[in-house]
Known about the structure:
This protein has 324 residues and is an alpha/beta fold. It contains 13 helices and twelve strands.
Amino acid sequence: MLQRFPETLFRFCEKVRRETDGCVASGALRMGKTGGTQCMTKSFVFRERPKSTAPDRPRKVLITGAGGRIGRSLATYARDRYPLRLLVHDEDDRAEMTVYGETWVGEICDPSFMREACCGMDTVVHLAADPSAKAQWESLRENNVEGTYQVFKAALGAGCRRVILASSIHAVSGYPQGYQVHPEDPVNPGDLYGVSKCFGEALARMVAEQHGLSSIVLRIGAVQSREQAKRAESLAVFDAFVSHRDLDQLICCCIDDDTLMFAVLHGLSNNRFNSMDISTAEQLVGYAPEDDFSELNRALAELKLRESVRPHNAREKRGKALDL
């Protein structure tokens, strides 16, 4: 018989989380309804008329922050799918990244550089940011606020079809333990880094609905390689893990989609226990994550949680209820 997540394991993982200075909220509950209506509007909007490049013309993709961990993995994964233009921070990165595509060195806060970089691009994948949860506001304001504004402004001016914004689980990390976040839930940042990502999410929706530039927000969890996930110290992110290959797949699903004007999607792997629900990403763009932290991590694999723990995302629960 299926059982709830073992309390002793939950306490142990929380202990590891504290000791490793983790700050990701766990979750299992949803907001209810107020006055008979849903608390928030839908987290996605469809296009009135799908806008697509011609089938015989590959979509040109610009990746900001291509020299980072996520950018390098995505460039490796996507180089045979799309013509890539990669924006990096310095010459050393350019030397390493040219094998994956056309590589430019510059600053996302430079309006003229970004206007030129966006010209001729179908999709902009905006990864560049200060990624530290402990970053000071001065850096966050420059890189995550001003930089994101310049990227959207340049993409809009260049006539790009879509911007895919790398947001973060930190935009909703203020929710209490025991609450599973869904895309339609209000933002609830737990730190200033999360606040800077909330700005990007708001800007993405405004640009999509007011100016017609399709925007997809990806709230990305704790990105680790499959090898990293096997280690004991990785238990701190047991409910927030996303593998590189799953995240790469999700981003490409968002590039390929023609139906969405705006959406907030959650970027986690197919973990047995997820702090953010991924069913919207599965339904809207066909995301099919392959990895499960509970099966990769050596300490959890022995417990066989996929057999003993109740499903922890809306898709599985709905599937069982409707016998799908």
